[in-house]
Every structure is written in structure tokens, then in C-alpha cells.
Amino acid sequence: MSSPQATLPDDQPEHRYNAALADRIETAWQDRWDADGTYETPNPVGPLSEGFAEVADAKKLFVMDMFPYPSGAGLHVGHPLGYIATDVFARYKRMTGFNVLHTMGYDAYGLPAEQHAVATGQHPLINTEANIATMRRQLRRLGLGHDPRRSVSTTDREFLEFTQRIFLRIFNSWYDPTAVNRLGGPGRARPISELLESYRTGGRRSADGRPWAELSEQEQRSLIDAQRLVYVADVPVNWCPGLGTIVANEEVTADGRSDRGNFPVFKRNMRQWLMRITAYADRLVDDLDLVSWPEPVRLMQRNWIGRSVGARVRFTTAAGDIEVFTTRPDTLFGATFMVLSPEHPMVDALTAESQKSAVDAYRSAAASKTDIDRQDEGRAKTGVALGASATNPVNGEQIPIWIADYVLMGYGTGAIMAVPSGDQRDFEFARQFGLPIVATIAPPQAWFDTQGVEPSLDTAAWKQAYTGDGPVVQSQNTTLVLDGMNKAEAVAATITWLQQHGHGAATVQTKLRDWLFSRQRYWGEPFPIVYDDYGPVALPDAMLPVDLPETDQFAPRSFDANDSASEPERPLDRLAEWKHVTLDLGDGSGARALVRETNVMPQWAGSCTYYLRYIDPTHVESLSVEENQRYWMGENGVDLYVGGVEHAVLHLLYSRFWHKVLFDLEEVHTPEPFGRLFNQGYIQAPAFTDQRGIYVEASEVTEHGGQFMHDGQPVKREFGKIGKSLKNMVSPDEMYQAYGADTLRLYEMSMGPLEQSKPWDTRAVSGSLRLLQRIWRVVVDETSGEVRVTDAQPTTPDLRALHSTIAGVRDSMDALRLNTPIARITELTNHLTSTYPAGAPSVLAEPLVLMVAPFAPHLAEELWMRLGHTQSLVREPFPILDPSMLVSDTVAVPVQINGKLRTVLTVAAGSTGAQLEAAALADERVSSALVGRTIKKVVVVPGKMVNLVVG
Ligand code: ANZ
Q: Quick one: pLDDT band at residue 308, thresholds 50, 70, 90?
């Protein structure tokens, strides 16, 4: 497809709306909007409050697009889809009386910017700033009505300070599951000072019962630090040697690779910072009921959090108790062995001397496997016996303890009671190693039939585990009798017994893990943390921000992507002068030598609470100005949040978590940050492959009689994501040049429902240009450039056409069905151009201009000005519907001959009896039925029916 050209015939009328004219109009209006501060939105108080008095009575609306990262490649035409939609919506809302906050900032730290910097050798700051400049230019040219004063970047010093302050709020908190939260439910974050106080005054004691005063300073610090909402721990992490950093679970793809860069990811134990998101698991699930979000996103969050109800059961061993998590405590009598994850902390203590080398070898083999490989169901089971045993609490039997890689350290307790008769993985393991299999539920006849074996509780003949329901068998001791119960009854009875006998308790397990919060990279927010001899210490707010130190050694050390034994190296560790500091933290200890944290925060930190920065972009004294925040967040938080569904569990989960912590700390006042979420679809573009299957430059492909050709060779067309890899990049710049921004905006909104994915078609863009040309002609004479509207009074059909358009446009806007208003506007335009070829009444042209304004704001402003208005139309009231004008224009009238239905006429409402009779007789089906017959009588009920009596 050849690239679009602004080739227009020379004989075009001088004042026709075309790309060149659009360019002049658009750039002029963009300059004027900037100069007039048209999109500046006042806050109730503070530095941005000028002009608030004028909107004080208006309702507020906070519209947000998902925080973009400033990519080096610039925008393609797929990116602005959501941005245009929110802009159309925001413009409509402004015209219906809302005070609208809409802006766009930049999520500028993180891997994409850094990977780009590493690839080009240029410092990420230089790149980032250049990319932001490019994106700002491209977005400004699109005519988005953003408040430029609020367009922050996460790399701004004030923003950095804000992020570090929030980190410290979380660090200085702990989760009290027994406290009542602001919604009246259980669990709330509380200041760590209250925890300290409770230890000091004896309300709490250490795990071994010693009072606070008897603990050493190190013990006191560790006790408190372990309970913080941000803490350091030795945990299994996703080590990605190819990136040189660990990544969060959420950043690992379904096939066990990094979502950035697509490198293999390995499980390893490492000391890392974690955020205790698991404390909020229940509230993160339950509060999904409070938001108006697409159901698939809510479902994805529920599944990601993954609540399972079951029990923890303690088994005693020579080296201490081992706790397992099970969803099937009813099967305890069938637990014939125990399996620990190879990373389980008790493995060393339990391993017999003779098994040491086998255990070590198995553990290092497991370390080089990804979680996904380890969970692969079809794999042959492997494992090593530790040479130790545990006591099964229900029958006192000694069962052997094994390690196997199918048990993951990151779930439950990292240890299981293996019940081979009831769990397929355990079944395969037992068969592999000749371990006993004891049935605890009698399977039904039908199950044996499908196996093709005789029904029997002797499991020797079984071909697989039985996971279904049925009567419990072989399960009793002197105090617990499960035999005869069904599964659910036996689960409940066992849990009660375990609790009574001190062997375990009911528990809810979630798949969600605490959020791994440190990265061994350069381009991220430094932690506001230093270390003294006892551990991490928070810097006081007055020492913020901790700036990222300057260096040209920003590239991380990355490793062979498969080298799972490699160790991360933090770039900030190379900066000894920055790392080692002498500071007086103001805590009474005086100036002392301290060591800075050299990890940086992950990609997602900056996007967690950026809406607070939009509200108060320059404020640093606290997290936000309460009055402004209460005003903009209102009852439900951000009123409309638009972005891609790919953020369903990463950004949206982290963001909700931080928000809830801040809610508990009374820093924010809505339980959820984003009241309404909308996921826009993707724009896909044609991509072409040659006979070898290699992508060719889409812009060089031509079409000949339905055949696509490149370089004289036929090529195949497909539709895919727009971008460099499919060689089908279409940039908005090309569109601005060939058509203008208003046409691009109108085209993207007219492509179809916003939530659907749809193919880009450059050739179809000219259809949108033609509509704008027709609207232009309603107001402006193309030849003379004169305004051609008249003072004529509109007719009833005119008013009907106008008000049915107003109704259609207004109805669709709130539901974000943004393609339908365009169809209505087209109908009205057609009505006006056909009814008034020489110039339409201005009372019709003006509302047309106002209605197209959200879609094509520059064209609308220009026409509005030419219609004699001196003020921008941005806050002009949107046309108001007169419902009395909505009477349906036509009615259906049945025509009968001798009582038999012959046809149904569609006639103008209000047609007279004579008109109906004439219309009936003119109908072909009626006239053919009348051939050779005479009409004796005509009965007409206007608006209802026509009956012909014939002989
Ligand atoms: C005994 C048992 C008997 C189990 C039985 C199942 C069936 P969900 O539903 O996903 O929560 N499990 C527990 N921790 C594990 C870990 N770290 N790695 C691998 N498997 C683990 O699964 C919970 C079940 O998965 C638990 O219940 C446990 O096996 C296993 F007839 O315990 B079950």
C-alpha cells in the first residue's frame, strides 16, 4: 500500500477543507489553546486554584489514560485510540458542565527506557527526555485537551520524592489483621510506632515470650522489621540472568520467561525487598465488588490472587515440626509420605549423611528449572528421599520425607502431605518410587469402568488417583471417625479434630505472593533507605529525594540467559562514594556511618499512585493536599480509567494495593482508586509476508486486482500488532500530514466499538476527511471562503433531524459508544446538505458544529469562530434535547383486502386518510391484487390501517 499523499487536484476550490487547510487551522488553534490556557483545570485550593470560583458549582470528572512510558520509537496510530476516546469523552463532559481533570504524564523509569539506553549507549535520562519530547509533540499535534501543567514524569525530582515518601509510609506500617478498617471489615495497616509501643508497654511479647526490655537491640529491630509492610527477606525469586535482575511473579509469562525481553527465568533464593500485598489479598478480592470494571479483568484479578480454602497440618520430625498446606485434610489417613520443595529451609537439617550428595545434586538441578517446567503435568516425576521420616498425626505412622521439584516453595508452606490415592502428581510419584498408596474414598463403579478395572480398594490395579467424591473409607482412629462421611463432611470433621488436638488449623491460602520490590538495575527510583549495623533504616522525609546518582556505568551486568547460577550485580554498588555516607538522621544517634540501599524500585512503583500527582503536580510537603484530593477522587476515585487489558494484574493490582495502604493510613479516602475502568481494543494493521514467510515493508506493497505485490513478487496479507517487527508501522505524523489530526481522530473513533480490536485501513481514512469537508461546507463557501449560513427558520423535519441527532449523540457518549455519534452526525450533515444546498440555517449549523467538536475540535473551533463567536467552544453548552421533537417520523400501516393482509406501508406519521388511501393504491402488491376487481368500499383509520372491500 503506497503511503498516503496529500495529492489533491490543482483545480480544488481555494477554501476547501483539505490537509493543508487542516494543518493551518489545527496548529493555530493548538497555539491559541496553549496561550489561553484553555485546558487548565482549577483545583479547589493551592497553586492551581485560580478560576475555581467559576466552576465551584460544577460536578467534577477525573478522566485518566493509563500512564504511558515514553518509548524511543515514538507513537504509531494504534497508541492514540484510547487517548482520543478519553479526550472525546472529556470534551463532551466539559460541554455538559463538568469541571474535568484530564492530563497525561510519563512513566519514565524502568526497563523499556533502560534497555533502550543500554542498546544505544546513551544515558537513559537523555533518551527519556528526548522520547518524552517526541511524544509530547505527537500528542499535542493530536489536539488533546490535557492540562499541560499537570503533565508530570516519574523522573521529576518532585515525583521521585513523592514515590519515596509513599515507600516510607508503607515501610513505617504493619498490618494488623484484628483491627477494624474504615469499611468496617477486618484488617488494617497501622503505623509501626503503635506496634513498637505495644511491645514496649508489654501488650506484645517476642515469639519466645521474653519482654521487650530483655531483647537485644538487634532482636528488637529484627522483630519489628519482620512485621513491616515492606521488608527484606530471603525468598525464592525469579532470577533472570538475561536481564541481570530479578523480576516479579507478575512479570513472568505463562511459559516462564520475562515479559520484557523474553529471557528464561529461574527460581532462586535471594535476599530481597518485598511488599506485603498478601496481607490485602482478601480485601483485594472482596472490593472488586465496589468497582465498575469489565468482568474479565475482575476475574483475572480473582484468579491471580487465587484463594483456596483448606488446612495447615503439623507433622513432627526429629528436626522439628513441618507444616503442610492441604485442600484435602479429609485424606490424612492416606498420606503415605511427605514431600518438601527442594528449597525448603528444613531440608539440610533432615537430610541423612548418606543422602547429602544426592540431595545437593537434586537441588542444583531443580534450581536451573523454571516454575513452569516444574509444574508441567506430563513430566516424569523425580525426587530424592532425605532419609528421614515424619509422624502422621492421625495414625502415628512414620512416613518417609522426600524432596521433589513439583512442590514449589512459593506456595502454601512449600511442603505437602502426599496422598497418592487422591492426587495425581502424588500417585505418579508413588508409582515411580514404589511408595504405598492407600485409598480413603471409595470411587464409584463408573470410575472403575472408565479405567477398565475391577472395583477394589486395593490400589495395586488403579491406573490413576481418584479425585472425586464418595464415601470415606479406611479413615478412623480412636477419636476421629471419618468412615462413611462424604468429602465435605470429612474435611470439616478433620479440621475440627486437628484444631482440638493441636495438630493444625483451617486456613485460607492464596496463590498471590508478596510483591518482590527490588531490582538490580540502574534506571529506577533509589530506595530512601540506609543500613546501620542492625539493618535497614528509613531516611527522614527531610532528606528526600534520594537522587539517582550520575554515572556512565549504568548498564547492568547481564549474563548468559541460561546461566542460572550467575549472581546479580547492582550498578549502584559501583558508586562507592554515593553508597557510603555519614548522616545524622535526627534520631538522636548523631552523625554516623551508613550504607545506602543499592537496589532500585521496580518498574511499577511510579505508576501506583500517579493520579495523586495529577491532582497536585508540584506539591511535596505531604502526599497530597487533602481538599484537592477529596474533591477530585470524590466517592469512587478516578471516574474513568482507560487502558489496555494487559494491565489487568500488574499495574492494577499493585495500584489498588498501595491505594488501600494509603486508605488505611487515612492519606486517601476512597477504598478503591479507579471507579470505572474501560479496556480499549487494539488497532491492528495489515502486514505482508513474502514466499519465504518474511515480513516486507507494508508501505511498499501495492494491490493489483486483489493481489498484493511487493518488488514484483506476490505477498500474503495478515493483520497484526502495529510495529517494527511486522514492518507495518503507520505513524500519526504521516496522518497529520496527509489528512490532519481531526480526520485521524474522527477515523479512529468511527472504526467500530472502542472495546473491540479492529484493522487499520489507511484508504478508509479519506471517508472521515470527506465528512469533515461536508460539515465545513455547511458553514463555509468553498470558493469564496464566506460564511454561508442563513437566518432561515428550521422546519419541523429539520428539528426532528436535529433532535434525533442530539439524542443519539448524548446517549452514546456516556456509554463510550463513540462510533455511533459519528453515524448520527453524518445523517444530520446529509440532511442539511441535501435540504439546503445553498446554505443551512445557522440555528441548525451551530449545534452541528458543537456536536462534532469533541471529535474534531480544531475544525469545530474554526467554524464556531467564523460563525461569529469570540469565545472558544470548549465550555459552550452541548446542544440540549427537546424530547417533544423525538416523535417517530414514520409509522407502519397494514393494508388489508377483504380482511386479508396484503402489505404494510411505511408512511409519514400524521398522514391523512386520503394520503393513506393513495399510498395503499399505489403499492405494487395491492394494485396487482386488484387487477380485474372493483373497489366497493375503503375503510381508513389514520395511523392504524387501510381496509379495501372489493368485489
Ligand atoms: C493433600 C492432598 C490430597 C492434596 C489430595 C490434593 C489432593 P490448590 O487447589 O491449587 O490450592 N500443594 C500444596 N502446596 C503445594 C506446593 N507448594 N507445591 C505443589 N503442590 C502443593 O492446591 C492445593 C493442593 O496442592 C494441596 O492439597 C497440596 O496437595 C498441593 F487428595 O494436600 B493437597
A: confident
C-alpha dihedral, 643 to 645 to 650 to 654, nearest 10°: 50
Q: DSSP label at 148?
A: G
Alpha carbon 559 to its chain centroid, in Å, reads 31
The dihedral built from the CA positions of residue 102, 106, 107 and 112, taken in this order, carries a sign that is positive
Q: Does 412 sit in the ligand 1 pocket, CB within 6 Å?
A: yes
- 128, 108 Cβ separation under 8 angstroms: yes
User: DSSP letter string over 785-838?
Assistant: --B--B-PPPPHHHHHHHHHHHHHHHHHHHTT-TTHHHHHHHHHHHHHHHH-TT
Kindly list the strands in the beta sheet with 266-275, ordered across the sheet, starting from the edge strand earlier in the chain: 245-247, 230-240, 266-275, 515-516
In Å, what is the CA distance from 796 to each residue of 550, 648, 788, 805, 806? 71, 50, 22, 14, 15
Which of 138, 149, 136 lies closest to 39, judged by CA?
Answer: 149
Q: What are phi and psi of 554, to 5 degrees?
A: -85, -15
Does any ligand 1 atom lie closer than 6 A to the CB of residue 264?
no
Cell of 874: 470548549
Strand locations in 263-382, DSSP E? 266-275, 307-317, 320-326, 337-340
Q: Which residues contact 488 (CB under 8 A, 6 or more apart)?
A: none
Q: Which of 716, 715, 646, 723 is nearest to 684 (CA)?
A: 723
Among 267, 309, 416, which is best to mutate for testing ligand 1, by the most ligand atoms less than 8 A from CB? 416
- Report pLDDT digits (tens) over 216-262: 999 999 999 999 999 999 888 899 999 888 888 778 888 889 988 88
Contact 577, 598 (CB under 8 A): no
Around 458, how many Cα atoms within 13 Å sit in the side-chain half-sphere?
Answer: 4
SS3 content of the chain, % helix, strand, coil (to 5): 35, 20, 40
Is the CB of 423 inside a 6 Å radius of any atom of ligand 1?
yes
Each residue of 153-179: b (16+ CB within 10 Å) or e? Answer: bbbbeebbbbbbbbbbbbbbbbbbeee
Backbone angles phi, psi at 675, to 5 degrees: -65, -45
- Reported as a single tens digit per residue, the pLDDT across 466-477 is 999 999 999 999
Contact present, 310 and 328 (Cβ < 8 Å)? yes
Ligand 1 centroid – CA 272 distance (Å): 27
325 Cα to the center of ligand 1, angstroms? 7
**Centroid of ligand 1 to alpha carbon of 174 (angstroms):** 30
Map grid coordinates 484553555 to a residue. Answer: 38
pLDDT single digits (tens) 279-301: 999 999 999 999 999 999 999 99
- Sheet containing 677-679: order of strands: 98-102, 59-65, 640-643, 677-679
∠ at Cα 72 (68, 75), nearest 5°? Answer: 60
Q: Is the pLDDT of residue 9 over 60?
A: no
Cis peptide before 545 (omega within 30 of 0): yes
By the 8 A CB rule, do 638 and 659 touch?
no
Q: Which residue bears the cell 483456596?
A: 308
Residue of 879, 862, 749, 853 whose CA lies nearest to 801 = 879
Query: What is residue 271's predicted lDDT score, i.e. its pLDDT?
Result: 87
